[in-house]
């Protein structure tokens, strides 16, 4: 028994070290994303207060979508730590849907690209529906 534990010790030590590195990197990423989120809030407030007759609706809408992307990434990192070092797949789907909506808003000149982006959103939503129906039946989240 003691010999088996000694044989697994280097593997356990490596996994603990890598987990610490991963957690540190995610904390740094969360701090950076929080700073960028605050920067977007300041921009949105300054534009809405000082430029009430704004003519750049697409840029404003794009910045709002970027704000939600930052928000979703931060929420995903928080969930990672709350769910004991596990990334829920639904957050990746949320981020993918938001990113595709942003692409449609920003790059809407080409109808074929808009259709393809819309189909990508449909695939993500179908995947989300399938995931929720499977987890609903099994009782797992």
Automatic annotation (TrEMBL):
Superkingdom, taxonomy of origin: Bacteria
Keywords noted in UniProt: Cell membrane, Membrane, Transmembrane, Transmembrane helix
CC per GO annotation: plasma membrane
Membrane topology label: Multi-pass membrane protein
Alphabetical list of InterPro entries matching this protein: P_starv_induced_PsiE, P_starv_induced_PsiE-like
Main location: membrane
A Pfam family of this chain: PsiE
GO biological process, one term: cellular response to phosphate starvation
Localization of this protein: Cell inner membrane
Residue ranges that the Swiss-Prot or TrEMBL entry lists as coiled coil: none
TM region(s), chain numbering: 12-36, 56-79, 91-108, 114-131
Family, similarity comment: Belongs to the PsiE family.
NCBIfam families: PRK02833.1-3
Name of protein: Protein PsiE
Organism for this UniProt entry: Peribacillus glennii
Chain's gene name: psiE
């Amino acid at each position: 028994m003691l010999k088996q534990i000694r044989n697994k010790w280097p593997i356990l030590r490596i996994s603990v070290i890598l987990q610490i590195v991963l957690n540190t990197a995610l904390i740094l990423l969360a701090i950076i994303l929080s700073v960028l989120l605050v920067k977007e809030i300041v921009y949105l407030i300054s534009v809405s207060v000082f430029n009430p007759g704004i003519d750049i609706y697409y840029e404003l809408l794009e910045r709002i979508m970027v704000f939600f992307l930052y928000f979703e990434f931060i929420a995903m990192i928080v969930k990672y730590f709350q769910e004991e070092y596990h990334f829920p797949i639904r957050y990746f789907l949320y981020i993918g849907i938001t990113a595709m909506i942003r692409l449609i808003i920003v790059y809407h000149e080409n109808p074929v690209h808009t259709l393809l982006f819309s189909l990508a959103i449909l695939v993500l939503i179908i995947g989300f529906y399938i995931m929720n129906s499977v987890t609903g039946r099994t009782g797992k989240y």
